[in-house]
Specification:
Elements (H helix, E strand, L loop, with lengths): L1 H20 L3 H12 L4 H7 L6 H40 L18 H15 L3 E2 L5 E2 L1 H4 L25 E2 L5 H9 L6 E10 L11 E11 L4 H16 L5 E8 L2 E10 L16 E10 L1 H6 L8 E8 H9 L12 H4 L7
Parallel strand pairs: 1-4
Antiparallel strand pairs: 2-3, 4-5, 5-9, 6-7, 7-8, 8-9
Helix pairs in contact: 1-2, 1-4, 2-4, 3-4, 5-10
The protein binds 3,4-dihydroxyphenylalanine.
3,4-dihydroxyphenylalanine binds next to strand 8 and strand 9.
């Protein structure tokens, strides 16, 4: 009996010593299992109580229980301590160094392509043009046939085309919007529209060509609309876009959907018309194609060419942006280089 008491005391001492020196929660759990679990040392001492004589059972039992209680308390205290220490360590590990510079969020800017597209549209809207949306995917009928380019027309070859497998195509020119607008206007009354959008051609990309580019198409139809109206409208557009001093020059050209057709040049901003490297010594830079709407186009659109006439034009968006901002390579519009994009800020 005395040896049982001795053993209990020894066990209590050992356990408390070990508990106090446990350096981690996992080690503490191991110690707990050794002393306090069902098969642990203290439990097996308690089970020996049945061999103790009845008269001493109460006293010895109380000693054993006390020992167990003391170990249990020591365990709980150390457990709390260790948890706190471990939590502290964890928090220290997770501390955020607020002296580190934060991540940079660069606010986006509008691509100059869209700045100029909107500016072109605004200028024409201020002259009473309505803005209509076209389709990127077109049928041959709208992209070619209704623009006086039947199936075997050689002018189709100049617009190497992306055909889709369903017989449709990516439009090669915004002129397709002309055909839609004429057809959709059931009143067959006067029209004044611009239609901005992307065009696609199987071009090899270089400094001035891209397989994808933007145009703004213009179309005016009404009684007595003449080349003089075309010239006056485009001269005003050029002054608003490039400045009061810019002049335009019309050069005879050919488009299947206009007759007569012209190419329109603007006087060179760099040399003022004297001739320089920018205008290749000519003093002029081409910016768009235009002409009087071909009678066949009017007829196919349901208009009577004996009653009405019209003019049309197609401006290259990148071309205008390149001249306006002095951009040297069309591919820059599509490369998403932040240094390039950030140099264009919208004023408001
Ligand atoms: N569609 C022509 C092209 O992509 C540009 C053009 C020329 C449009 C004359 C017109 C026009 O409306 O009248 O090359």
């Amino acid at each position: 009996m005395e040896s049982l008491i001795e053993e209990a005391k020894k066990c209590q001492e050992d356990a408390i010593k070990e508990i106090e020196s446990a350096s981690s929660s996992s080690r503490l759990m191991e110690i707990r299992n050794i002393y306090l679990s069902k098969k642990g040392r203290l439990s097996s001492l308690l089970s020996e109580l049945r061999n103790v004589e009845a008269k001493d059972k109460g006293r010895v039992g109380a000693i054993l229980n006390k020992a167990r209680e003391a170990v249990q308390n020591a365990f709980l205290a150390r457990e709390k301590q260790l948890k706190e220490e471990e939590m502290k360590k964890e928090l220290e590990k997770e501390t955020i160094d607020i002296s580190l510079p934060g991540r940079n969020f660069t606010p986006g800017t509008i691509n100059p392509f869209y700045l100029i597209r909107d500016e072109i549209c605004d200028i024409f809207a201020s002259m009473g043009f309505r803005i209509v949306e076209g389709n990127d995917i077109e049928s041959e009928r709208y992209n070619f046939e209704l623009l006086n380019m039947p199936h075997d027309h050689p002018a189709r070859d100049m617009q190497d085309t992306f055909y889709l497998t369903n017989g449709l195509l990516l439009r090669t020119q915004t002129s397709a919007a002309q055909a839609h607008t004429l057809e959709e206007d059931l009143s067959k009354g006067p029209l004044r529209i611009v239609s901005p959008g992307k065009c696609y051609r199987r071009d090899d990309d270089d400094m001035t060509h891209s397989h994808q580019f933007g145009q703004v198409e213009g179309l005016v139809v009404g009684k007595g609309v003449s080349m003089a109206d075309l010239k006056g409208t485009l001269a005003l557009f050029v002054k608003k876009m490039f400045g009061e001093k810019r002049k335009i020059r019309l050069r005879s050209s050919y488009f299947p959907f206009t007759e007569p057709s012209v190419e329109v040049d603007v006087s060179c901003a760099k040399c003022g018309g004297k001739g320089c490297n920018m205008c290749k010594g000519t003093g002029w830079i081409e910016i768009l194609g235009a002409g009087e709407v071909h009678p066949n186009v009017l007829k196919m659109g349901g208009y009577d060419p004996k009653e009405v006439s019209g003019f049309a034009f197609g401006v290259g968006i990148e071309r205008v942006a390149m001249l306006r901002y002095g951009i040297d390579d069309i591919r820059r519009f599509y490369q998403n280089d932040i240094r390039f994009l950030a140099s264009f800020h919208q004023e408001d």
